[in-house]
Specification:
The complex is a heterodimer of chains A (about 300) and B (about 290). Chain A is mainly alpha-helical. In chain A, about 80% of the residues lie in helices and about 0% in strands. In chain B, a hairpin with a 6-residue loop joins strand 1 (about 10-20) and strand 2 (about 25-35). In chain B, the strands form 2 sheets. Chain B has a 6-stranded mixed β-sheet, with helices on both faces. A 4-stranded antiparallel β-sheet of chain B has the order 2-1-4-5. The longest helix of chain B has 16 residues, at about 175-190. The chains are: A mainly alpha (about 300), B alpha/beta (about 290). The interface of A and B includes residues 9, 12 and 30 of A. Bound molecules: adenosine-5'-diphosphate and magnesium ion. Magnesium ion binds near residues 52, 53, 91 and 168 of chain B.
C-alpha cells in the first residue's frame, strides 16, 4: 500500500467512451434494481395474454384469421409504445434529480469525469433499459404471433382446400397470412418504437437539466410528446393561414419548431405494419437518422445548460 | 518532496449565490485565500454557513468562482484534468443504495479509468484500510452513518490521489467512528497525502491538523500552525500523579514566594466525556 505516483492505475484516466459506458451500465443496473423489469414483464404478459380473450366474433374464416393477427400486433405494439415512452421519460426524469438530491453527483463530478460524459452515460443507460425491455416484449410478441399464425395457416389451408380453391388463390391467402406474422417488417416497427422512445428520453434529459423535479420533467415531456403528434397538422394550418404576408418569418418559425420538436407522424409507418404492409428499409434508415439527430441534438443542448450548472 | 507547486492554491475566492429574489446576491465566500503545501494536513474550521463547503466545491470545480481562482497541483479547478489527483468526500455523503461496498468502489475506480486486476486489488486494499471487509457485499442501503463515511473515504482514495478533500468527515459519527476516521487521516499523512478538511467541531480537527484556518461569514479570520494558535504562551501546565497534599502545599508556597509568577489554577484534571466513552466501550477489546 505504498504511494506510487505514476502507477498504471492513474497514469491515464480512461477514454470518453469508457467512462460513458461505465456510467451507462451503472444507470442500467440502478434501474434494474429498482425492479422495473418486474412490473414490466407482468404488464407485457397481461397485454399479450389479453389478446386471447379479445378475439373478434367469427364473421368469415378467411378474414377473421388475419384480423386476430393484426389485433395481436396492434395491442402489443401499442403496449410497447406506452411502456417504452413512459419508461424512457420517467427513468430519465428520475435519474438526474436523484443524483443531485442525494449529492452522489458531487462524488462523480469530483472524479475526472466531464459533464457531457455523465449526461451521455445516463441517457445511454436508460436507452439500454428501454432496448432490453422492448427486446423482451418483442420476443414474447413474436412467439405468440408465430404460434398463432401457424395455427391459422393450417386451419385456413384446410378450409381453402376443402372449398377447392385454385393454387394461385391459396398462395395469395398464404402470403396474406404470412405478411401478418412475425416478419422483418415487424422487427422494423419495434425498432421504430425504440427510436421514438429514445427521442423522448433525450428530450426528458434536456428538460431535467433545468427543471430538477421529476414530476415537472415528466409532465412537460408527455405534453411535448402529444404536441409532437400534432406538429405536422399545426404547422400546415399555421402556414396556410399566414402564407399571405409573413412568408420568411413563418417559415423560420416552422423551421425552428421542427428543429426542436420531431414530427412524430413520421412514425405512423408502425400503423401500416400493423395492417400488414411491409416497412421499406429506406423509411427505417430515415427514422434512424432522425432518432440519432434528435438524441445528439438534445444531449448537446443539455450539456450547454448542465455545464453552467452549480450544485 | 522537491515539489514546489502547492497542492492547493485558492486566490481571492469570492462566491455569490442568487437568492430567490433575482437581484439580491448572497455572498457565501468573500475573498478567501488558502495555500496548502504538498504533504500538509490543513483544517478549515468555522460555524455552519460560513462558506467552508462552498470553498471546497469551488476548489473541485463544482461551482464557478464569482472572482478569484482555484488550482490543484497547479491546474485550474475548472479544467476536468485537475480532478485526476484529488479525492473528495462530500458533507453527509449518500451513495447509491443499490450498490454493495465493493461495487461502489469498483464504480468510482472505473470512472477514474481503472480496470481489471489493478482495480480489484485496489478495492480489496481499500476495504481493508477502512475496515469494511465484512460489509464488502452488503448493499449501502443497510450501512450505518459511520460506515457510509468510511466507504466515502475509500471512494475518495480509489485512484490513489495525492490530495484528499474531506467536508465534515466526522459529522454525525459516534466517537469510535470519528476516532477511526481520525486515525485514518493520520495514516494518510504518514504516506505523504495532502489532506484538506473542514469541520465545525473544533475538538476533532485539533489532533490531526498541521495548519488551521478559521473562517467566519465567508472571510478568513485567523490562520496559522496549530501549536501557535492554541498554545497559551505565558502559561505552563504540570500534571502530577499521586501527589500528597503536603507536596501541593510546598509547590504552592514556592510559587507564591517567586516574584512575577502566579498560580492560575490547581485541581484535578477532568477527562473528557469522549475519552470516558472510549475507555468504557473499548475496555474489552484487545
Ligand atoms: N447552492 C446554493 N445556493 C444558494 N445559497 C447557497 C448555496 N450553497 C450554499 N449557499 C449559502 O452559502 C452560505 C455558505 O454555505 P456553506 O459553504 O455550505 O457553509 P458551511 O459549509 O460552512 O456550513 C450559506 O449561507 C448557504 O446558505
Ligand atoms: Mg458545509
Amino acid at each position: 500500500m505504498s504511494q506510487h505516483p505514476d502507477s498504471p492505475a492513474r497514469s491515464n484516466s480512461g477514454s470518453h467512451c469508457g467512462r460513458v459506458w461505465v456510467i451507462a451500465m451503472h444507470a442500467f443496473t440502478q434501474l434494474v434494481r429498482m425492479k422495473v423489469f418486474y412490473f414490466l414483464a407482468v404488464f407485457a404478459v397481461i397485454a399479450i395474454g389479453s389478446n386471447f380473450f379479445d378475439l373478434p366474433q367469427h364473421t368469415g374464416p378467411e378474414v377473421s384469421g388475419i384480423a386476430v393477427l393484426s389485433s395481436i400486433k396492434s395491442w402489443s405494439l401499442g403496449t410497447m409504445t406506452l411502456f417504452s415512452v413512459v419508461l424512457g421519460i420517467v427513468a430519465t426524469a428520475l435519474l438526474l434529480p436523484k443524483d443531485v438530491e442525494d449529492r452522489t453527483l458531487y462524488t462523480i463530478l469530483a472524479k475526472p469525469v466531464p459533464r457531457v460524459d455523465y449526461l451521455a452515460g445516463k441517457l445511454l443507460g436508460v436507452l439500454l433499459l428501454v432496448f432490453v425491455s422492448l427486446a423482451l416484449m418483442d420476443v414474447l410478441m413474436s412467439a405468440v404471433l408465430q404460434i398463432r399464425s401457424s395455427m391459422i395457416l393450417n386451419q385456413q389451408m384446410d378450409f381453402a382446400q376443402g372449398r377447392g380453391w385454385s393454387a394461385a388463390e391459396i398462395a395469395s391467402l398464404r402470403g396474406d397470412i404470412l405478411s401478418q406474422g412475425a416478419n422483418a417488417s415487424l422487427q422494423g416497427a419495434v425498432f421504430a418504437v425504440f427510436l421514438r422512445a429514445s427521442i423522448m428520453a433525450s428530450l426528458a434529459l434536456l428538460i431535467s437539466t433545468f427543471s430538477s423535479s421529476t414530476l415537472f420533467t415528466s409532465i412537460i415531456s408527455f405534453l411535448i410528446y402529444f404536441i409532437g403528434h400534432f406538429q405536422a397538422d399545426a404547422r400546415a394550418i399555421f402556414l396556410e393561414s399566414g402564407a399571405a404576408g409573413t412568408g420568411p418569418v413563418t417559415r423560420a418559425i416552422s423551421l425552428v419548431v421542427s428543429l426542436v420538436l420531431p414530427d412524430f407522424q413520421l412514425f405512423n409507418v408502425i400503423d401500416a405494419v400493423i395492417e400488414g404492409q411491409a416497412m421499406p428499409l429506406l423509411i427505417l434508415a430515415k427514422l434512424t437518422a432522425i432518432g440519432l439527430f434528435y438524441a445528439v441534438f438534445y444531449v448537446i443542448a443539455s450539456w450547454f445548460i448542465f455545464a453552467e450548472k452549480e450544485f | 518532496m522537491a515539489d514546489a507547486t502547492p497542492a492547493v492554491e485558492i486566490c481571492g475566492l469570492v462566491k455569490d449565490f442568487k437568492t430567490s429574489f433575482r437581484r439580491e446576491m448572497l455572498r457565501a465566500v468573500a475573498g478567501v485565500s488558502i495555500r496548502i503545501e504538498a504533504g500538509e494536513v490543513y483544517g478549515l474550521i468555522g460555524p455552519n454557513g460560513s462558506g467552508k463547503s462552498t470553498t471546497m466545491k469551488a476548489l473541485l470545480g463544482l461551482v464557478a468562482p464569482t472572482a478569484g481562482h482555484c488550482a490543484i497541483f497547479g491546474q485550474d479547478s475548472l479544467v476536468v484534468d485537475s480532478r485526476r489527483d484529488v479525492g473528495f468526500l462530500p458533507e453527509n455523503p449518500y451513495f447509491y443504495k443499490h450498490l454493495s461496498g465493493a461495487e461502489t468502489l469498483r464504480f468510482y475506480g472505473k470512472l477514474c479509468g481503472m480496470r481489471g486486476r489493478v482495480l480489484e486489488q485496489r478495492v480489496s486494499e481499500l476495504l481493508a484500510l477502512v475496515d469494511l471487509e465484512s460489509a464488502r457485499d452488503r448493499r449501502l442501503g443497510g450501512y450505518s452513518k459511520g460506515m457510509l463515511q468510511r466507504i466515502g473515504l475509500a471512494q475518495a482514495l480509489v485512484q490513489d490521489p495525492r490530495l484528499l478533500i474531506l467536508d465534515e468527515p466526522t459529522a454525525g459519527v459516534d466517537p469510535i467512528g470519528s476516532r477511526q476516521i481520525r486515525d485514518l487521516i493520520f495514516k494518510l499523512r504518514e504516506r505523504g497525502i495532502t489532506v484538506f478538511l473542514c469541520s465545525h467541531l473544533l475538538e476533532q480537527v485539533q489532533e490531526v491538523c498541521d495548519r488551521v484556518g478559521i473562517i467566519f461569514q465567508g472571510k478568513m479570520v485567523k490562520e496559522g500552525r496549530l501549536e501557535d494558535l492554541i498554545a497559551i504562551e505565558d502559561q505552563t501546565e504540570i500534571i502530577l500523579r499521586d501527589a500528597s497534599p503536603e507536596l501541593i502545599a510546598r509547590i504552592t508556597a514556592l510559587v507564591a514566594s517567586t516574584p512575577g509568577t502566579e498560580l492560575v489554577r490547581s485541581g484535578k484534571p477532568r477527562t473528557t466525556l469522549e475519552r470516558l466513552f472510549l475507555r468504557e466501550t473499548l475496555r474489552d477489546e484487545p
